[in-house]
Amino acid sequence: MELILVPLILGSYFLPTIIAVQRDHRSSDTIFFVNLFLGVTVIGWLVALVWSLMNPGREDESSSGDDSGDSL
What pLDDT digit, counting tens, does each position of 10-51 carry? Predict the structure, then answer.
């Protein structure tokens, strides 16, 4: 039972970090540290979660806003 519970608890604790890394968030390192040190408090965990869901990714040079690949 403990073998299932420990990864489940750790996964839910670090859910904001997991989301930030999956979304390639530009502040994923900072979100990790906020999650690690302030995640014990409910407010710190919620801040990290909301932050990981906002402003998701790094700007990609290939997505400069021109839709030259689209055709009529």
Answer: 999 999 999 999 999 999 999 999 999 999 999 999 999 999
- Domain with 28, as residue range(s), is 2-53
DSSP designation for 25: -
* Two tokens, residue 35: 């999650």
Indicate whether 30 belongs to any domain: yes
CA 70/CA 53 separation, integer angstroms: 29
Q: What is the pTM of this model?
A: 0.75
**Cβ–Cβ under 8 Å, residues 24 and 57:** yes
Residue 61 lies in a domain: no
DSSP 57: -
pLDDT at residue 61 above 50? no
Domain count along the chain: 1
